[in-house]
Design brief:
This protein is mainly β and 162 residues long. The protein contains 1 helix and 12 strands. It has one domain: LURP1-related (Porin), CATH 2.40.160.200.
Length: 162
Amino acid sequence: MKLYIRQKVFSWNDKFKVFDEWGREKYLIEGEFFSLGKKLHINDMQGREVAFIAQKVFSFLPRYFVYIDGKETAEIVKQFSFFRPKYTIEGLGWEINGDFFSHDYVISCRGRNIVTISKQWMTWGDCYELEIENDNDEIISLAVVLAIDCVMAAQNAAAAST
């Protein structure tokens, strides 16, 4: 199964949609504008929250928690590194490898691909393709990828302000 994340170029409150491979709207992602730390709600098209992502505010390294059905399911942690970003996903046993700067990476578990992420070029705004191997991993895969994107966006904003 494939999902496509198309983020608006000029969005004040992180509001965008996720589409399936046939171009149908599948999820609505909404950020909280006035909150301590980054928070994203993943809702289905009927308005039901299927996942929630929250940044741990007071942490040396960026940390994001993923909640499914109100339970903490995963913690995404950016590791300390000098040259290339490195992340760990705690709670799932998943590993991440690839090039995060070009949004071309794979999340796997014991040699089995969970989701492959690639950036679609020549589009207005950012567009990412998620190829998810197992339908049961759809929501958690989407949430993990969004959490990694939050870390990257925060780093880019910090670098631009210096």
